[in-house]
Design brief:
423 residues; mainly alpha; Growth Hormone, Chain: A; two-stranded antiparallel ribbon; 14 helices; 77% helix
Length: 423
């Protein structure tokens, strides 16, 4: 009979560092939602070319390919807390300058592309430092719950609260969502700066150690781990599809469905509501019953069906329902892949393993965004969703190697359970 890994599930303490890190993440997500929803709407007022609009999304992913591995290596070397608040402060100032440019009528597609590229460049350091910092703030058996609470809080603030506010802010001027985003970055920086410094669990650097050598070590660690290797390949394929979908979602809703800005907000809000449900379903039903890796496989399989509905059923109600399901299973995917990566990475290497995973995983997103724009131009505004479904199918197939016998739940040197996955 098939068995699954034994997973202990605890709860993180809100007091102390985790609570403040959660607060900073939620604030940033609220601001990000304002900017993310406002950017494509602003882009549609500047051009009606699908490929140009998709290029804004594509350039938001490109820095991961250029700076992602470097960001992880730096995150393992520096004070992660200080790196995070410094980056957020710089991003706040950058978005504030962009808000001024929009307010005085100097917005352009080129400026949108430059903003997307610059913000993601800073994000390569911030995200890797955040992923590496979290395990030092919570117990190992509470790591999965901490990730779920972080992501759930971000979805509440970013989608349930942030996205519906965008039309109200836009009524006050195109620059207002970006000014609000800048303020949230600065507040989040203050919260992270208030964290107590955490002594990192790092091995002494060998003589002659260089960033290039440390980056290579992170890549080798990821390549040697069968489960993480399979999850990374699956994530890369998914992100090609996600890039195609996100880059053209505004065109799918406002063009193919003719649902306008209200429809776009409904679709993004449905995704958020589904994501919130995904956090609860993941902890209460999936992880304790089927294990983390199988939960990821189930999530990807269900998302394929949701994408097919988006691309074939010309109904706003069907799109909203499909987006809710897509968001639910997206949360299951994200929580479990992040937790597996944190649990399986050796001490002092999480920044590099995280950056290798993210960089390889995100690599397909710019390509997907451009493919989505090209597909929408050539075959119709609904075809990017079907293109995404095809790549998700390939993604699920690539997870098969992660189900081979004797894949431990965590890295052998970890102190947590090492029960094996069998099938």
């Amino acid at each position: 009979m098939a068995t699954v890994e034994a997973v202990r599930v605890g709860a993180p303490a809100w007091r102390g560092g985790f609570g403040r890190l959660w607060g900073a993440a939620v604030l940033s997500s609220f601001g990000d939602a304002l900017r993310t929803a406002a950017l494509p709407l602003l882009a549609t007022t500047l051009t009606d070319e699908p490929l140009a609009i998709a290029a804004v999304t594509a350039c938001g992913y490109l820095p991961w390919l250029v700076f992602g591995l470097l960001g992880g290596a730096v995150a393992d070397r520096v004070d992660q807390r200080r790196a995070m608040w410094t980056v957020d402060a710089l991003r706040g100032l950058l978005v504030a300058c962009f808000a001024v440019a929009v307010g005085v009528g100097h917005a352009s597609i080129g400026l949108l592309i430059a903003l997307a590229f610059a913000l993601t460049t800073f994000q390569t350091l911030f995200d890797n430092a955040s992923t590496a910092l979290l395990p030092s703030l919570v117990d190992d058996d509470a790591l999965g719950s901490a990730n779920a609470r972080l992501m759930t809080g971000q979805k509440i603030a970013g989608g349930l609260l942030g996205a519906p506010v965008v039309p109200l802010l836009l009524a006050g001027g195109a620059a207002l969502p970006f000014a609000a985003d800048a303020a949230t970055f600065l507040l989040a920086a203050a919260l992270v700066a208030s964290l107590r410094p955490v002594a990192p669990a790092r091995k002494p650097k060998p003589a002659g150690s260089t960033l290039r050598r440390e980056i290579t070590e992170g890549l080798r660690t990821l390549a040697r781990d069968r489960a993480l290797r399979g999850l990374c390949a699956a994530t890369a394929l998914c992100n090609i599809g996600v890039g195609a979908l996100i880059a053209t979602m505004v065109l799918l809703v406002t063009g193919w469905l003719d649902a306008g800005r209200t429809g776009f907000v409904l679709a993004t809000t449905a995704y958020t509501v589904g994501s919130l449900a995904g956090g609860a379903v993941n902890r209460l039903l999936l992880v304790t019953r089927v294990g983390r890796v199988r939960a990821v496989l189930l999530a990807g399989s269900v998302q394929i069906g949701a994408l097919v509905v988006m691309g074939t059923v010309r109904s706003l109600a069907a799109l909203v329902a499909a987006m809710a399901v897509f968001g639910l299973m997206g949360m299951v995917w994200n929580v479990n892949t992040t937790t597996l990566m944190q649990q399986r990475s050796p001490a002092g290497m999480l920044g590099r393993v995280s950056s290798a995973f993210r960089t390889l995983g995100v690599a397909g997103a710019p390509l997907g965004a451009l493919l989505g724009g090209a597909a929408a131009t050539a075959w119709g505004l609904n075809t990017p969703a079907l293109l995404a479904a095809a790549f998700f199918t390939l993604s699920v197939a690539s997870l098969i190697p992660a189900f081979k016998r004797d894949v431990p739940v965590v890295a052998p040197q970890d102190s947590a359970t090492t029960a094996h996955v069998t099938r």
